Amino acid sequence: MAKNQPECAHVQEALIARPGEAFALQDRPTRDKDLFPDKDDAAASVAADAVKIDELQDRLYAEGSRALLLVLQGMDTAGKSGTIKSVFQATSPLGMTVKAFKKPSAEEMARDYLWRVHNAVPRKGFIGIFDRSQYEDVLVVKVRSLAPAEEIEKRYDQINAFEEHLTQNGVTIIKCMLYISREEQGERLRDRLEKPHKRWKFNPGDLDDRQNWDDFMAAYETMVQRCSTPHAPWYVVPSESKTRRNALVGRLVRGVLEDMNPQHPDPGHRLSEFVID
Ligand code: AMP
Ligand code: MG
Question: Coiled-coil annotation: which residues (predicted)?
């Protein structure tokens, strides 16, 4: 890794919300200046990491006993789908699943809020990506009062317990909040209105969420504070530069996979006994 491309561990250190410590969003940057000073280095980094992530996913599949779950949260336009496209550009579609969580269906509303989430957890050998997640149930649901306050209050502990259960059962979890400012979102929403190929993405409901920006930020802050745990930490990713955002998430995912260090299994028979004619 070149000098101007930070080590995975260094990116982890810089972006993690340390479990148990006080957390304030205002202490976090929305734009990265330090980790990737140079945009070209960031582009090269994510390209290399994407290839490495594919190799590591192959090994994860061969090993067949564990999974990786990447949770992405962020306000509209923060770049959840762009990040997925970039970081997993080289990953075999056969080895990954992506689940985008929308407003719950009638079927989903008839169950507890974690039912649909548990059902989307990646199987062994896979990388699973959540575009939105269980955290919507303490974010939009809280801001729009879609459930009683005392029920929402219990969800932080419930989610921590759920994630601990998953990690104890072979699922490594990494959670990234893609952080942008309200001003940056304004630019990006204007872009959606102005550019014909982006208009389809514009949803008037996004403007309601934008009106409640401060409430959303307060909900995000509480979410990170209460749910960054040793088994499933939150990382706050400055996301106003798309290239650097991709590079940072790439470094985090690669670092976690390298730490998992999946191994090819022993084939279980003496290969020298086989002759291919
Ligand atoms: P998008 O990700 O832009 O396609 O939009 C999905 C929408 O579904 C967002 O406005 C989310 O806030 C909303 N959503 C996701 N999960 C929930 C939930 N549990 N309750 C209510 N709305 C949700
Ligand atoms: Mg949207």
Answer: none
